[in-house]
């Protein structure tokens, strides 16, 4: 539910295929494990909520130089969390995920835009308008993030606005 809600609230483009795959497989399992170990009120869980929001934020275009500098800091902060999730994941594409996310972030830091589209960089609903939440394709896409152990978790997490505010507070 956390990932689905953040995707609905996010104003940016839908994530590329490589990130969608990671979110629906490795990240979901990682969140479920961490929630079970630490609980919903824990500092660790609250940090993972922020990390999830920052991961989604990091994938969007950053035309402003200040945002590109912020992306550099956020990418460095994300690295240990992503590594931890990947270490516990049996997904076959973990090495390619690291390569793709690095390429993605480097392209945005250099030009402000994501890299030219390759098959891994396309999103599942390319050419659709994500704001049309009633579109069946978009609903199925979002539902793919609700079918994990985390779905049953009672979440009391911040909104996407809170996540953006934390970025501004943390990184000035």
* Termini Cα gap: 29 Å
Question: How many individual domains?
Answer: 1
Based on CA atoms alone, the radius of gyration comes out at 15 Å
Mean pLDDT: 77
Biggest beta sheet attributes: none
Give the number of DSSP strands: 0
Morphology call: globular
Total helical segments: 7
Q: Give the fraction of residues assigned to helices.
A: 55-70%
Structural class by secondary-structure content = mainly alpha
The proportion of residues in beta strands is under 5%
Low-confidence stretches: 127-134, 148-158
Helices and strands, in order, run as HHHHHHH
Key phrases:
172 residues; mainly alpha; globular
What does this entry look like structurally?
Helix 1 crosses helix 3 (43-57), helix 2 packs across helix 4 (65-87) and helix 4 (65-87) runs antiparallel to helix 5 (94-111). The chain has helices at residues 2-9, 17-38, 43-57, 65-87, 94-111, 136-143, 160-171. Mean pLDDT is 77; it is low at 127-134 and 148-158. It has 172 residues and is mainly α. The chain has one domain.
């Amino acid at each position: 539910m956390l990932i689905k809600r953040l995707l609905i609230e996010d104003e940016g483009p839908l994530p590329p295929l490589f990130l969608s795959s990671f979110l629906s497989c490795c990240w979901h399992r990682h969140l479920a494990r961490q929630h079970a170990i630490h609980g919903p009120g824990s500092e660790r869980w609250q940090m993972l909520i922020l990390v999830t929001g920052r991961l989604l934020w990091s994938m969007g275009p950053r035309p402003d130089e200040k945002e590109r500098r912020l992306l550099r800091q956020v990418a460095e902060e994300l690295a240990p969390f992503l590594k931890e999730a990947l270490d516990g994941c049996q997904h076959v594409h973990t090495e390619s995920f690291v390569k793709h996310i690095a390429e993605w972030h480097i392209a945005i830091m250099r030009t402000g835009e994501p890299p030219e589209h390759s098959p891994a960089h396309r999103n599942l609903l390319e050419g659709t308008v994500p704001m049309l939440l009633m579109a069946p394709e978009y609903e199925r896409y979002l539902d793919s993030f609700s079918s994990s152990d985390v779905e049953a978790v009672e979440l009391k997490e911040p909104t996407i606005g809170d996540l953006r505010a934390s970025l501004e507070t943390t990184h000035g």
